[in-house]
Design goal:
two-stranded antiparallel ribbon; flat; mainly alpha; 4 strands; Lysozyme; about 450 residues
Length: about 450
Amino acid sequence: MCVQTEYLRGVSYALCACLTFLVIVALPSFARTSFAQGLVEERRAQLENELAKIERDIGEQQVFLDAKQRERVSLERDVAILDARIDQAKLSIRARDLVIQGLTRDIRSKEGTITGLNEKIVREKESLAAILRQTNEISDTSLVLIALSRDNISDFFQDLDVFESVQKRMFDSFHEIEESKQITQAQKEDLEDKREQEVSLRTLQELEKKKIEVQEDEKQRILKATKGDEAAYQALIATKQKSAAQIRAELFTLRGTAAIPFGKALEYADAASKATGVRPAFILGIIAEESNLGENVGTGSWRVDMHPTRDQPVFRAITSHLGLNPDRMPVSKKPWYGYGGAMGPAQFIPSTWVLYAGYVESPKGSGNWTYDSSRDRIGKLTGNKPPNPWEPQDAFMASALLLKDNGAAKGGAAAERLAALRYLAGWKNASNPSYSFYGKEVMELAAKYQALIDIIKGN
């Protein structure tokens, strides 16, 4: 009897110690977390303020560039444009650096939170195991015997209630921590994906800056040749203008296909423009940008670089209906931040191509794709049924249709730039400043091709 009484007193002491442990450990941990979170939020606010200022500066530079480009061609104007583009590229790169810093800091914060949760889970498990051992020993002993060993039977039932209460709290706490850990881990993975995407975009901006720095070298050569004389500059421009015959002979580089004469590319762009209302020079700008973005020029493998469930089944159906060997068709390589598998000059991924080329999945979700000519928007305009994403004529028409759906047919620089961003990043991400470089580059290419078109057509 005496042994049983001492045992139950020990259990009560263990319960008290366990509850005290929970109170003592939780408070300092909460205080430390709150303090660290405060520092993170303060630094995040600093980064966001700095980023907002840089993005305002970028916007001001764009206004300046737009105004300068409307001026008459002159030495002063062109030098100012080159300088502004270089400054704008540097600001864009700095803005991306700040975003990357913020994401990196958030990731570290999440990692610290996950570590703390893991440690707390271990402590909770140890405490829970101790209580479970105690309750198991109680269950192995006759309840009548234990009850009769107590000086006060009501204390016995009170101890049992405490045991059940602590067990429930421990189980609830453990469940909440596991749930928080899963949520935090998902947030961390999301942030890491965003950081990789930002790093990739910054690399592209570095390439853009190098391209503009080449133009800076050209500016210096112009200044040296003209010695700052406006008349000499105008004469230099005149000698650089090409005849219509020379322009038509130029090769227009396409991704995934052999190069074609510029005149042929313009023929495809004109036909696509007539069908959709999208400006021919803008269509050429999109195709040129998609065909010359760097190393990702159609050297990928559909089995490796393409999304396995979203695009691979569609790709097999497209190549099958065209009578092509999927293993021999060029697709884009996987970038750092997602999947590749884009096809042909217009760089459509298979799951987007089928929306315009008349393919239907039946039943939905089965991966069984069939071709329906009545739904083929591209083929209705080109006469090619089914259309081929690697054929320039079909690629130009598909690109124009997508640009029309993105709002480019409204005309004007703002509508075209937004349509280009939607072409790259979709409607949801088109307003993300990270992608602004793409819209600017497409508009610069469109301006270049508009000048060539004007020469060819004698405007």
